[in-house]
Amino acid sequence: MPPFTPTKPISYGRQTITDSDIAAVVEVLQSDYLTQGPKPQEFEKAFAAYIGSKYAAVMSSGAAALHLCALALDVKPGDKVITTPITFTASANCVRYCGGEVVFSDIDESTYLLDIQKVRHLLEHTPKAERSAYKGVVPVDFAGLPVDMQAWRELADEFGLWIVEDSCHSPGASFLDKQGAERRSGDGSLADLAIFSFHPVKHIATAEGGAVTTNRQDYYEKICRLRTHGITREASMLQENHGGWYYEMHELGYNYRLTDMQAALGIEQLKRAEEGLKRRRAIARRYEEAFAGTPVTVRLVPEGFHHAYHLFVIEVEKRLELYNFLRERKIYAQVHYIPVHLQPYYKQFGWKRGDMPVAERYYDHCLSLPMFPALTDEEQEYVIRQVLEFIG
Ligand SMILES: *Cc1c(COP(=O)(O)O)cnc(C)c1O
Fold it and tell me: Which domains does the chain have, with CATH numbers?
């Protein structure tokens, strides 16, 4: 047999849609409610159970989830919030939606995660009088490796910060805390709020979609109100009551709802989440084995951490050349991420090349290889062969 060659491009990530997914969406289309029916709540209960949090509020996107977190935490002009430059821009943008200031801090080169020692250093070297402007931190479980949330909680408590965990890459990931207990990403036990995305490249696809998870009832209720125009029908909250139709708008909210069609898809997708995670981990093992002892750099997962592999990142000397080489061979690898502080929008606030040396060096060499449950063994072997051929 001639060696396998793909007939269509192999992207770095993509959704899996089954017949039962399609049937679930069609069933909603034939029902009474396309939106504001029973499916979003059903999805929320199932998602909270999977993540291990008390509450989940599903909404129209991960970015919307971040925005409502920033509102629930009352981010205001003058407030400073710390995050990583190696993330999708949305992790930072939520602070700007509320007029706050984004303070980037560099990553740890061995994990690519926001470096907690550097954040501690930043806070300790800020004069006491100015320290109170720092209100929160948004650590990101980049690529699917969870941050050490126990360590972040300790730091946050010491400096009076809240934590929003950006868990878009890490549903199902976990780590063992100092007491040996398993802590799942976004489980609400340590971070104040966590957010997820259901974009098709993520673990669970609803086309567009997102969620906030938390153990805090007050945040959960506020986020649910903000998701639907800031309107409440809750009898105990009403200032007046004119009858069955009556509602009140108490604050300026948005329409960030997830539709019933999307929620029905999410419910089906969630049933296969564990299976997908197992497949992602198997793909990662194969890449690690194939690149061991080669010039392709693959970072080790720290002891006690269970990676969810949204991405499989390698670092190589000639990244641009490898990217183009793979592209010509129908492999659509990607770069995650262009450091957010180098985006023109953030440069206007004074951020520049040289500010985050570890993140910038990482950016010059990183490449995300195809990583998604439907990637076949044959396709993966093809990807590996091309990378090794390029390396020589
Ligand atoms: C995907 C993603 C988001 C935003 O999600 P959307 O649903 O696309 O708005 C936020 N943060 C990270 C780290 C992401 O990967």
Answer: 19-271 (3.40.640.10), 273-391 (3.90.1150.10)
Q: Count of CB atoms within 10 A of residue 119's CB?
A: 24
10 lines ligand 1 (CB under 6 A): no
User: Which atom from ligand 1 is nearest to the alpha carbon of 63?
Assistant: 9
- Residue 75: strand, helix, or coil: coil
**C-alpha of residue 284 to centroid of ligand 1, in Å:** 22
Mean pLDDT, the chain cut into blocks of 10 residues (392 residues total): 86 97 98 98 98 98 98 98 98 98 98 98 96 98 98 98 98 98 97 98 98 98 97 94 96 97 98 98 98 97 98 98 98 98 98 98 98 98 98 92
Q: Tell me how far CA of residue 76 lies from CA of 101, 136, 139, in angstroms.
A: 9, 12, 19
CA of 167 to the centre of ligand 1 (A): 9
- Report the alpha-carbon distance of residue 202 to residue 222 in Å, rounded: 26
